[in-house]
């Protein structure tokens, strides 16, 4: 059978500027994309190897919600979507993970440093930005669209936690506190805890006001590492050529770029996790609009991603 399309013998020319952009968009080991039931779920191999564990970071692929003509897996109750769609998407997400029989425990997220330990299912979603459990069957869930989702697993004591870390939560040390709370609640030694820092907005796309530098340096000894060079706004913007927009089509950078992943990784290290037990994906929700939702890029008409972790019953 003749091929309907001629294959080109030429390789696509290497574009250095583009490859630097794409660097924050590739899925590389130990991260894998698990495809099931029309969905694509990001997973971490060291977690997948634990037979008693369920985990996953959702993507926008598949699902029954319609966002500007695209079918998406929106997992948060948004004004533009119906509760029926969201609930159906959540069931589909759980089924794709083989977690349909587990109890989904989302939080009412409020950008706090509040962690909820669960030993059974509450009647109503609790307010908070992190949850933890050592009870099998409870599927801890965090919703994000740019903020940093973090899953913690202690294979020794068999306890898990899920964290939502935006800039406010990061500034109030939610991640460091969550590790301490796992020790308090379950006896989890930080040196045994594994951490997965999931897809979030990268420093490439996360420009913040210049006063964020002093906000963070007042709290963290290494905070200057979380920012790129503070700029006055007079200098040419390096992003202008990185994303190949023609000159004049993008305003010059006024603020600084904040790396929330680095800030949260630093908190995990400060809490006593081993560097080799911390896994960070550099997938950027801003750069990879094909895979993820981004509030910064899409505004109120963006969906919500969900990051989940549980012990099987
Ligand atoms: Zn980006």
Care to describe what's here?
This protein is an alpha+beta fold and 313 residues long. The protein folds into 2 domains: 24-201 and 274-311, CNF1/YfiH-like putative cysteine hydrolases (4-Layer Sandwich), CATH 3.60.140.10; 207-258, no CATH class. The chain has helices spanning 16-22, 45-48, 83-96, 167-171, 174-186, 212-217, 239-242, 260-270, 295-298, and strands spanning 31-36, 39-44, 53-57, 61-67, 70-72, 103-105, 115-117, 130-133, 138-144, 148-154, 159-165, 194-197, 207-208, 256-257, 278-280, 305-311. The chain has a 6-stranded mixed β-sheet. It has a 4-stranded mixed β-sheet with strand order 3-16-9-6, with no helix packed on it. It is globular and about 45 Å long. It starts with 15 loop residues before the first helix and ends with a strand. Bound molecules: zinc ion.
């Amino acid at each position: 059978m003749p091929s309907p399309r001629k294959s080109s013998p030429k390789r696509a020319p290497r574009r250095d500027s583009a490859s630097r952009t794409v660097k924050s968009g590739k899925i590389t080991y130990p991260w894998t994309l698990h495809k099931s039931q029309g969905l694509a779920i990001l997973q971490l191999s060291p977690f997948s190897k634990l037979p008693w564990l369920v985990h996953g970071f959702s993507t926008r692929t598949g699902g029954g919600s319609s966002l500007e003509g695209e079918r998406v897996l929106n997992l948060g109750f948004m004004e533009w979507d119906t509760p029926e769609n969201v609930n159906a998407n959540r069931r589909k997400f759980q089924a794709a993970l083989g977690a349909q029989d587990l109890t989904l425990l989302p939080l009412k997220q409020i950008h706090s440093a509040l962690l909820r330990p669960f030993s059974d299912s509450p009647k109503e979603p609790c307010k908070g930005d992190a949850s933890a459990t050592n009870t099998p069957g409870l599927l801890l869930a965090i919703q994000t669209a740019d903020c940093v989702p973090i899953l913690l697993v202690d294979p020794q004591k068999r306890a898990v936690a899920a964290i939502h870390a935006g800039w406010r939560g990061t500034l109030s040390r939610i991640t460091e506190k969550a590790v301490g709370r796992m020790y308090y609640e379950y006896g989890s030694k930080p040196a045994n805890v594994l951490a997965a820092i999931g897809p979030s907005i990268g420093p490439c796309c996360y420009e913040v006001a210049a006063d964020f530098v002093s906000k963070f340096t007042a709290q963290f000894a290494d905070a200057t590492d979380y920012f790129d060079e503070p700029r006055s706004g007079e200098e040419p913007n390096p992003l202008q050529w990185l994303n190949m927009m023609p000159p004049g089509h993008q305003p010059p950078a006024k603020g600084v770029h904040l790396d929330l992943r680095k800030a949260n990784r630093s908190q995990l290290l400060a809490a006593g996790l081993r560097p080799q037990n911390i896994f960070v994906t550099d997938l950027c929700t801003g750069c990879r609009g094909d895979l993820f939702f981004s509030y910064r890029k899409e505004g109120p008409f963006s969906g919500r991603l969900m990051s989940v972790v549980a012990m099987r019953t």
